Amino acid sequence: PISRLFPARQNTCIPILMYHAVCEGSSDRRPYYETNVSPHVFASQIRQLRNEGFRAVSLEEALRVFGDGNCDRKLVVITFDDGYRDFYENAFPILSECQFTATVFLMTGFVDDLAGTFKEKECLTWRQVRELHAQGISFGSHTVTHPQLKLLEMDRVEEELASSKKMVEDQLGTAIRSFSYPYAFPETCHEFKRQLREMLVKHGYENGVTTILGTANPRCDPFFLPRLPVNNWDDPRFFQAKLEGGYDWLHSAQYLSKL
């Protein structure tokens, strides 16, 4: 209700949804850290977006809209971290039914001609990645090995960024411009952020997403965009509240917890 008092702000924001696995079962008992959403709940959420008149766009298009200064509050960006096989089996069919696009961020060390396994879940194969790309799904980098980058030497960080990007480009024959930061984003570590941003620019990235809570707006750094975690705990009203900016205030608490 409080966020609805500021309609002008809503009209300049675009929700970027963060999904991981679309499968049965729970990964954690805490709603914020839950990374599984059941196929039934996922289908309900995507149909809710469609029925409310949302249009799914790529990160590039969302940033173009910000640059044009003509933001449509009925735009949404749908992202998936890790690149699990259940995206191919469970998520893509409902996205296709609703004529929605999405961006999948791949851990390239777990993608092969035979499916690798990460956190006891099978990942996509390159054949599936190419098939999905041909059907309009975008792909980005989620590093090679999914490390906590803040704990690595910067040359190792650069290797993770560069190698993963090149591998996806070689497989798809197209430029990869988007990056998703694995694990909690260290937004209070300003020197690390500066170096990371320089590396992303150096290797041809143009945008990126994080675990920073909130809806994206024209004031956001395009390399460190906030997202909204979505999972089984989100009933239709709570899901709607997230889309309208009702979850954004939690970023203040999230930021303070990292100091």
Explained architecture:
The protein has 259 residues and is α/β, with parallel strands linked by helices. The chain has nine helices and twelve strands. Strands 1, 4, 5, 6, 9, 10, 11 and 12 form an eight-stranded parallel sheet that branches. A two-stranded parallel ribbon has the order 2-3. Strands 7-8 form a two-stranded antiparallel ribbon. Strand 5 (75-82), helix 4 (85-97) and strand 6 form a beta-alpha-beta unit. Helix 2 (39-51) packs parallel to helix 4 (85-97) and helix 6 (154-172) packs parallel to helix 7. It is globular and about 45 Å long. The chain starts with 6 loop residues before the first helix and ends with a helix.
List keywords for this structure.
single chain, 259 residues, alpha/beta, eight-stranded parallel sheet, two-stranded parallel ribbon, 37% helix, globular
CA-atom Rg in angstroms: 17 Å
Distance between the termini: 30 Å
Fraction of residues in helices?
A: 25-40%
Order of helices and strands: HEEEHEHEHEEEHEHEHEEHH
User: Structural class, please?
Assistant: alpha/beta
Q: Taking all residues together, what is the mean pLDDT? A: 93
User: What is the tally of helical segments?
Assistant: 9
β-strand amount: 15-25%
Count of DSSP strands: 12
Sheet having the most strands: 8 strands, parallel
Which blocks of ≥5 consecutive residues have pLDDT under 50?
Answer: none
Shape: globular
